[in-house]
Task: structure prediction
Amino acid sequence: MTLILGLEGTAWNLSVAVVSEERVIYEAESTYKPEYGGIHPREAAQHHASELKNVVSRALRGAEGEGFSLEEIAAIAFSQGPGMGPCLRTVATAARALSIYLKIPLIGVNHCIAHIEIGRWQCGTKDPVVLYVSGANSQVLAYRFGRYRILGETLDIGIGNALDKFARYLRLSHPGGPKIEELASKGTKYVYMPYVVKGMDLSFSGLTTAAKDALDLHQHKKEDICHSFQETGFAMLTEVTERAMAHCCKDEMLLAGGVGANRRLQQMLKTMCHDRGARFYVPEAKYLKDNGAMIAYLGLLMLKSGDTTPIEKSAVNPNYRPDEVEVTWRDVE
Ligand code: AMP
Ligand code: MG
Result:
């Protein structure tokens, strides 16, 4: 059996998994938790460096416990980008060392595309429009002529970062998204928030500023502000996703990335898909957030199409865009 070891550590979650063509065999992780504020890139990288040996060993021992032999590992896949430079470099160094030591190929994968492919695999959706919403990224994508094309994206910060920033202002710990969701569920009144959609692109940084003003200048209740923040930001994302589906004539939609765990966002997208006779897909929460299984699984698809990464081409790219990747593992329409 062909097994792949996948290493993910673009930001705060260090996660390592062993995957076969049939299933995710074993996953191990260690999450960096900032004492205060957001993710500090150097501290997160130091966390990954000190935890890597432990997390890789747990994943390998776990796979052995499931009855597999380490001889069956055919390649090492790692997140080549996008992500935080110090974190990417730490994990890439470990991946190169493992590849050289075990004398097996190295595969550098694009983190955004890994989110898409694990979703397609887990949900059984063939050709969806994808809404990828995480801390740093907010993109609407679809596969066209050999690449994942970015049809719309944020012009400034990701929706997750916008939520996390406002959460920090409310003195809530990282990650703020789930705490904002909890507060929003108790809000009843809509307060003004800027709805910024430019063509197919979006802007979220004004939402954070408006939310701070609603609290400090206008003394609205924080529950109402969180409710309004979500209603506005998620409606913007739903509008652009719907337009992408209409333009591409696609009747499937896949949600990906950590913010995808939000029930209100899921509900809005589900309603939009239902209204246009399309199917809505969302994978289990553990595959929405950053995870090693998605890196290993995309590594497996790439290995099968002969797409490996020589060491001299394995430098990380913190701004790696999904449309830079030539998709070798899917049929061209
Ligand atoms: P990722 O970068 O894909 O690991 O996603 C992390 C981001 O997802 C952070 O900005 C979190 O605040 C956000 N997030 C996680 N759960 C939720 C939720 N239930 N609602 C909104 N945002 C969330
Ligand atoms: Mg991610």
About this structure: The pocket of magnesium ion (ligand 2) is lined by residues 111, 115, 134, 257, 290 (CB under 6 Å). Residues 127-284 form a domain with the Nucleotidyltransferase; domain 5 fold (CATH 3.30.420.40). The radius of gyration is 20 Å.
